[in-house]
Amino acid sequence: MRKMQLCLIILLTVSLVFTGCGKSSTELQTVQVAEVTRSIFYAPQYVAVSEGFFAEEGLDVQITTAWGGDKTMTTLLSGGADIALVGSETSIYVYQQGTDDIVVNFAQLTQTDGTFLVARTPQPNFKWDDLKGSVFLGQRKGGMPQMVGEFVLKKHGIHPQQDLELIQNIDFGNIPNAFAGGTGEYVQLFEPQASIFEKEGIGHVIASFGAESGNIPYTSFMAKDSYIQKNKEVVQKFTNALYKAQKWVYEQPADVVAKSIAPFFEDTDLSLITSVVERYKAQQSYDTNPILDEAEWILLQDIIDEAGELQKRAEYSKLVDTSFAQKAMKK
């Protein structure tokens, strides 16, 4: 009897030991993501974290903010991040410079420009021709917001350098302060700054550059080709979680989405987050799926080319891989 009890104890102990050893197989795999900025414009990314979609796929996604496209790409290329969330044009710039390890876009997050035209005074009957002869506070030359801004202005028959007094010598972070201090009659701003100015009576949103420009791969998740080839399962899991988040954002009301991402914006009022989410959802700035299609890729390069920043066209098949997005959607 005692021998039987002893055997049972030994078996139980061995079982517990192996259970403890096997625990490591269920631990989450860390993925480092460098984002270009912290923005409500990227809501589905934060939803994938807060709602546990990444964790469900076995991933521990850690997000760091690089504050700038060049810094984000430097972080990715130097190995400081596995994946980057940045404008797709940066992958083209890397390709133009020549590299043995190209950067590949594998999942799209936003499909429109995220900026708005803000006027100093209310203009309920605004027409784009009203901008002619005005002082326009634009974004940094060569950056995607400015290139899209100029593309939209030209679309409406306005030559940015000839028909406007265009100001482009102010750092991105100081543009709102410059406008609040009296510089410019119009300014191109991201959210939530545009809504903050409306709330404070400093400015008034009168048009959306995103609605005017059409769908483009404005912000995408990308990685070095070498990383993707070695970590296809991780990239697939990441894309699966992102697609879940993209669907969830459009299935839920804006206030629910706002509560989900609020921990990423501790200094921003919840009602403001809600209004920004609602505005971006209304114009479908958040992509509804992770696929970056070829028509969007062509338009992106048309915009860059028109701005004089494109040295050579980058093949869609070379810098874009939709296989992970397609599998995520089938799943």
UniProtKB/TrEMBL annotation:
Signal peptide limits: 1-19
Ranges for domain SsuA/THI5-like: 43-254
Pfam families membership: NMT1
Compartment annotation: Periplasm
Alphabetical UniProt keywords: Signal
Main subcellular location: periplasm
Top-level taxon of the source organism: Bacteria
GO CC aspect terms: periplasmic space
Keyword flag Membrane: no
PANTHER family: ALIPHATIC SULFONATES-BINDING PROTEIN-RELATED (PTHR30024), TAURINE-BINDING PERIPLASMIC PROTEIN (PTHR30024:SF47)
Similarity section: Belongs to the bacterial solute-binding protein SsuA/TauA family.
Protein name as catalogued: SsuA/THI5-like domain-containing protein
Originating organism: Desulfuribacillus stibiiarsenatis
